[in-house]
Write a structure and sequence with these properties.
Helix content: 25-40%
Strand content: 25-35%
Structural class: alpha+beta
Largest sheet: 8 strands, antiparallel
Shape: elongated
Number of strands: 31
Number of domains: 2
């Protein structure tokens, strides 16, 4: 299916290409994760692309692109067809970040128009000037970028100008490829470069450009050389095979495209390998277009991203759990953390505290291994979470408190209904795992705690409003309450979590209130008739996912058949009339929850 897009993305475990310009296939930026820097490095700048594909005529003049269409091979590998000026042939380009490799490749091919072809050479031109360090915000890194000769590739390598090595990236030119580069004036001048291949006499009229990333020169060049040795065909077919083994279908080609695009975006942009230590880590997003990228949230990674990964790659799901119960466990429940597990933004969140327990339960059930709860690091992590949980219990109310709510904003009152339901579910599921693992006494204790909490929620968090009993959003010790809802932790999910029957009148009244046109954040009657909240007062994509999990399949099908979101990728919220991204573009963990909801709601299979 051909697409007209503003921005394309692709990437693998090491390298992300989050800003591929839709108008000409230029790679705007490159990002990777770095443990010593506790976040992400971004190479590139707004003023000009990092790497741009071009077609040249016999005089060396660049042939302008008049129109361009895109498709995604395997729902993930971007491929464009650029129609050149005056009908002067077509430039076909494919951008591939091969799975498991520390680099990427760009393949260009000239397709002649009727008569003699005007394309004589294919090239990549680029400028590498600046690098930035990104954890939510971007700050300049080092003293710019500079190219220097390299004997390892017979061309050049581009380094970060710094006192110690941080990273390098470099091409591995093919035989016969012309290479040129120069540095700008001054320390911050940056590097301009061109790689050019004459294809006027080539039988397939194609050129492949391999790029590698490393801690320093040797690592970068040999990463590119490894790609060249394996060759385009092997890398391309291997990646498509890998994608195909994880691809899922819900029986509708249009929905399948949205499902798999978001599934793979979640897979590669909500986690990755650090360049310097080769450690697997979890993040909100590896795209600088998401406003709190390159940091870790328990909720985002384990409640939203994890279920989709578990559905398609159990081994990767276990890696996620090992990271969450390893590096991140000592600060479980704290708002956000750096990728090394230290605190980024303080503030306690109850939903985040129990997220690891819910993810571990999901894995244990999928794998049929309740005994995982008795092995390290999981046994110790469970104990740590339960100890912290007890410090948040109000013994008089029987409810657990939180400081921040699921949007990460301060809670209006300390006891949130949704958060306490998550605690109830975590205790209930953990009790069942302990029972199956041969710990009946521990199971009985947790069952009693869960039963007591359920009674407290029903007694304290249900109020009669306008003649109907319904769940309120939050309560306090003095009888106060708030009527409200948030898509990241919606009361609509209470039935899906198993806390109450879908047909229960209290639950039905709660949903009716949230969906009522008079509710301030309801967009009933608009093109995107979903729910927003104070944090982002437009319809949320998480609300669309919630609708699917609540059984509103046909409504979700209608929206998903046309909603553009962020060039087909999940975002935080969209415009209520156009469906285009309104806030939080390139939201990788949300993409995971959307793809999971589609699998659940539409019954996706291989």
């Amino acid at each position: 299916m051909q697409l007209i897009v503003d921005n394309m993305v692709t990437g693998n475990e090491y390298v992300s290409l989050p800003e591929i310009r839709g108008s000409d296939g230029a790679i705007g930026t490159l990002t990777f994760l770095h443990m010593a820097l506790k976040g992400m490095v971004i190479i590139g700048e707004e003023c000009c692309p990092l790497i741009r594909p071009v077609a040249l005529d016999g005089t060396g003049r660049e042939l302008a692109i008049e129109s361009i269409e895109w498709e995604r091979e395997g729902h993930w590998v971007p491929r464009f067809r650029a129609h050149l000026e005056g009908g002067a042939d077509t430039l076909v380009g494919t951008l591939l970040a091969p799975v498991g490799e520390r680099g990427f490749a760009v393949r260009l091919q000239a397709e002649p128009a009727a008569g003699a072809s005007r394309i004589a050479a294919l090239a990549l031109r680029g400028r590498a000037k600046a690098a930035g360090h990104l954890v939510n915000e971007t700050r300049p890194l080092g003293r710019g970028l500079a190219a220097r000769p390299s004997e390892w590739n017979g061309a050049f390598v581009i380094d970060l100008v710094a006192d110690l090595p941080v990273f390098s990236f470099a091409p591995m030119p093919s035989p016969g490829m012309e290479v040129s580069w120069k540095n700008g004036d001054g320390e911050m001048g940056g590097a301009e470069f061109e790689l050019r291949m004459d294809v006027s006499r080539a039988s397939d009229r194609s050129a492949t450009f391999f790029w590698g990333l490393g801690f320093e020169e040797v690592g970068a060049v040999t990463a590119a050389k490894e790609l060249q040795r394996k060759g385009w065909d092997r890398l391309h077919s291997g990646t498509l095979s890998w994608l195909g083994s994880r691809e899922r279908s819900v029986g509708d080609p249009a929905l399948d495209a949205t499902l798999n695009r978001n599934l793979f975006f979640n897979f590669f942009f909500a986690s990755g390998m650090t360049l310097d230590t080769e450690e697997f880590v979890l993040v909100t997003s590896r795209s600088p277009r998401y406003y709190v990228s390159a940091s870790y949230w328990d909720r985002d990674s384990l409640l939203w991203s994890f279920p989709a990964i578990l559905a398609v790659d159990r081994a990767r799901a276990l890696e996620m759990l090992l990271y969450a119960f390893g590096r991140q466990i000592r600060n479980a429940g704290i708002h956000s953390r750096y990728i090394d597990g230290t605190v980024l933004e303080p503030g306690f969140e109850l939903d985040e505290l129990v997220a690891p327990l819910l993810a571990l339960d999901a894995y244990a059930r999928a794998s049929g291994d309740p005994g995982i709860t008795l092995r390290e690091p999981f046994a110790g992590g469970i104990g740590r979470i339960l100890v912290t949980l007890e410090t948040k219990l109000d013994a008089e109310l029987g409810l657990y408190e939180t400081f921040l709510q699921p949007t990460d904003d301060p809670a209006p009152l300390p006891y949130l209904t949704y958060d306490n339901v998550l605690v109830w579910k975590a205790l209930t599921r953990l009790a069942a795992l302990y029972s199956a693992a041969g710990l009946p006494a521990d199971a009985l204790m947790l069952e009693a705690r869960a039963a007591s909490l359920r009674g407290a929620v029903m007694a304290r968090c249900v109020r009669k409003i306008d003649g109907a009993e319904l769940f309120v959003w939050a309560v306090d010790r003095d009888g106060g309450y708030v009527v409200y809802d948030e898509p990241p932790g919606s009361l609509e999910l209470l039935a899906w979590h198993g806390f109450i029957a879908p047909g229960d009148p209290v639950y039905a009244a709660t949903v009716a209130r949230i969906r009522d046109p008079e509710y301030p954040y309801s967009f009933a009657g608009r093109a995107v008739d979903e729910i927003g909240c104070g944090h982002a007062p437009q319809p949320w994509i998480l609300s669309l996912a919630n609708s699917l999990l609540c059984g509103r399949r046909e409504k979700a099908r209608r929206l998903l058949s046309w909603i553009p979101m962020d060039d087909g990728i999940a975002c935080e919220s969209v415009d209520a009339d156009t469906g285009r991204v309104a806030s939080g573009g390139a939201f990788a963990t949300c993409a995971g929850f959307l793809s999971f909801a589609m699998l659940e709601g539409f019954g996706g299979g291989r």
